[in-house]
Amino acid sequence: STTPDPMSTTTPHPMSSTTTHPNHPSDSYYIGVARCDVTGPVVQVNMMGYAHPEQVANGLHTRLYSRAFVVADNQKQNRVAFVSFDGGMASQLLKLEVVKRLKEKHGDIFTERNVVISGTHTHSGPAGFFQFLLFEMTSLGHVEQSTTAFVDGIVESIELANSKLELGRIKIGSGLVDNGNINRSPTSYLLNPEAERARYTHDTEQSITVLSFDNLAGDPLGMLSWYPAHPTNMNFTNLLINSDNKGRASTLFEKMMRKPGETLAGKEEFVAAFAQANLGDVSPRTNGPVCVDTGLDCEPLSSTCNGTSQNCVGFGPGKDMFDSTDIIARRQLDAAKLVYKSATERLDGPVDWIHQYVDMTQQSVQLDDGSTVTTCKPGMGYSFAAGCTDGAGAFNFVQGMTRGTPFWNTIRDILAKIICTVEPPREYYNCHQPKPVLLPTGYMDKPYDWHPTIVDIQVLRIGQLLIAAVPGEYTTMAGRRLKERLYNEAVSQGMAGDTKVVLAGLSNVYTHYITTPEEYNAQRYEAASTIFGPHTFQVYQQKYTDLIAPLVAGNKDDVDLGPTPDLKPANQSRIAPVPHPDKLPPGINFGDVISDVNMTYTPGDTVKVTFHGANPRHNMKVRLGSTYLEIQRDEHGSWTTIYTDADWSTKFTWLETNSSAPPADITIYVIIEWNIPTDETAGSYRVLYHGDHMNEVGTITPFTGMSREFQVSPS
């Protein structure tokens, strides 16, 4: 059957929100927003992002959150859910588990087709939430607590947002972020056609796209934005769980929008998400890379210093990584605030979605010259192992390697005989050229698959806005090309000229990077991590473009669903550390103070107290949404909590030491720090520590430690 054009004013699509209803304006939507904690384990877990085995968390700086935005048309016939969460990326395991849980409770209201889960890409969150081995190497396999915390929090945020649906309006606008990013592979960007580059003023995206959500009474509900910047201001020496610049910007915006009576971070009703975009070659270290041993510029093509990559490091813009995180967060915040307050264009039109699973190892596409090219089974190039200026790799790998070496090829081939059921043929290596394959992950299947092959191709529509959810990290120009192609296709299919396209990175399944074919030829880090070969981008571009016509026509059900991915392997590795019973010296109780606070402080000082503690992984269900610490102020004889572990000004550090004298028991210390804000109120304060200890038979008991009172005096 022929479906009426949803953009027509005379024959609206039956699912379109142009269908009016008493007291339901045509440009209104049902809107629900929510934020839930997804922090998970804060100790004994490797962090996801830098892939450094030694970056094992030993505490908490800021909590991690899932921020959900549910939008339905004003008849509640179609709805979509967009989630931005403070995690390294959406894994296929997370997406499938979340959808499974939602289907079990809510039927087909939420499915893999109308739910997008997008990671902010913080490199300071817990690892271990995948079903593919390569992503779990440094986390020593699957970490159930990481997965459970992410899934529970994401599901809860979607459910809560859905339960709060009310009629409202969505406005859209864009503005420029001042000095919020730089290109970390500028020499690769220059390989794109000169005429194409001449259309843009910068080699990174400077614009932030902002949605404002209000109810019909004009009360603010939420803000959702997209802007590309790697959350790598916190470097790999950081051992405290941290949401980096994206999460910091979110909590600052939410604090700005507090209502009377809202005083605690992460507890505000307003929800603000700084979601990720085409960040592949985009660094937040705006001072750029330098050689740490000489202070000179790095060699530009390979990002090396005297031939090695480890000393070429990006810096800035602050005096340390905490300061840099805050600065980049505030630059995004300042731009988003201006757009949020000034946006006037309302989204108006259908709510819809389209989704397809695609096996990226078996795809071909016809190029403009008439030739047909194909994708390859996944493979990681030599320069993947070099890392980048946000975080260098190991050994003697450098960026820009287009030829393998006899030594590493031999190592590769020996490994392939051990962990590949079928050894890669020569055609496979040829397919990836000019990438020299270091890890033939498309054939590495022992003890289970090393890489995904089936990906989500998905687009959401809210009025004139299209949200392309992409399974990885598109570079600047790759993202620009995709957005332009989708815009042109949408308009050619009948959408209006005011159509907007945003790209939501790191969504649904992680497949590393997607570069343009020109950038691929240089084989810097991003290109070496473009896993399906030199034509990855062209295939993705065609697959997304093919979905636009049925999306615009309202014919999403006519699209082949594609091959469904498996949930997870039964033989998944689980060798990461698990919590053991806690021990104390004789005569000591959990929560006893070892080193107490000073008696007086002034704003700008740092309060520090050390307790006898326990492993914070014992009672994750209780601690999710709660706090390990409280900073309290005496207000007229009543102690009032003013800061928790969700605040930027607090740090929770866990230390485990082995006694050298018998009995050789493990002693646990917890250090709580509070950097007193410069505008803090004078008065009497104290610090509380909340923990849970486990005895030899597994019984878990909560406890609380308390510092002595101290004074904060005017400076």
Automatic annotation (TrEMBL):
Enzyme class: hydrolase
InterPro entries assigned to the protein according to its UniProt record, in alphabetical order: Ceramidase_alk, NCDase_C_sf, NEUT/ALK_ceramidase_C, NEUT/ALK_ceramidase_N
Pfam families: Ceramidase_alk, Ceramidse_alk_C
Keyword flag Cell division: no
Ranges where the record places region Disordered: 1-26
Keywords recorded for this protein, A-Z: Hydrolase, Lipid metabolism, Metal-binding, Sphingolipid metabolism, Zinc
Active site residues of this protein: 283
Residues holding Zn(2+): 121, 230, 473, 513
CC annotations in GO: extracellular region; membrane
EC number: 3.5.1.23
GO MF terms held by the record: metal ion binding; N-acylsphingosine amidohydrolase activity
Neutral/alkaline non-lysosomal ceramidase C-terminal domain: residues covered: 545-712
Any single biological process term in GO: long-chain fatty acid biosynthetic process
Swiss-Prot/TrEMBL catalytic activity: an N-acylsphing-4-enine + H2O = sphing-4-enine + a fatty acid
Domain Neutral/alkaline non-lysosomal ceramidase N-terminal intervals: 29-542
Cofactor note: Binds 1 zinc ion per subunit.
Cofactor: Zn(2+)
Family: Belongs to the neutral ceramidase family.
Record's protein name: Neutral ceramidase
Organism of origin: Ciona savignyi
